[in-house]
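The instructor's notes for this session suggest beginning with a concrete chain rather than abstract definitions. Hand out the sequence below and ask the class to guess, before any prediction is shown, which regions might be ordered.
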Amino acid sequence: MLVVLSCVILAEMAWTIYLGAQLPRTYIAEHWDVAWVGLDLAEIAMLAGTAWAAWAAWKRRAILVGFAVAAATLLVVDGWFDLTTARSGDFRQSLVVALLVELPGAIAMLWIAQRGVRRVVHDVVNLEATSLLKLPLHPPER
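After discussion, reveal the predicted structure:
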């Protein structure tokens, strides 16, 4: 697995360098509206999935971790593209929305995901984890 991930990382690095050198500074995009609406619909779906998994279901679901991480990722991506594609006159508004809505929303989603992982670890695996970075993928042999 480490070899495959290393190869993917190296390929992505090479692709990023290539794009950095080859992409034009400006570009007229077709279906701009579809791209943005699609991103926002994906965010709504992940936020709704998180809400369903956390509260709306008759029993809380561990899948909320996946929904919350995906929602956090999409919120950060949304903020990034808002900032990097904003015209000079729209940059301030994009920055405010990124700092007051998208980044705090992403942090909240990651906090929810972290709590979900801790609950699963505590209730299902019966481990006390002080840090997600120290949490093993497999429980220790007993």
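Then share the key points. The chain has a mean pLDDT of 89. Residues 31-134 form one domain.
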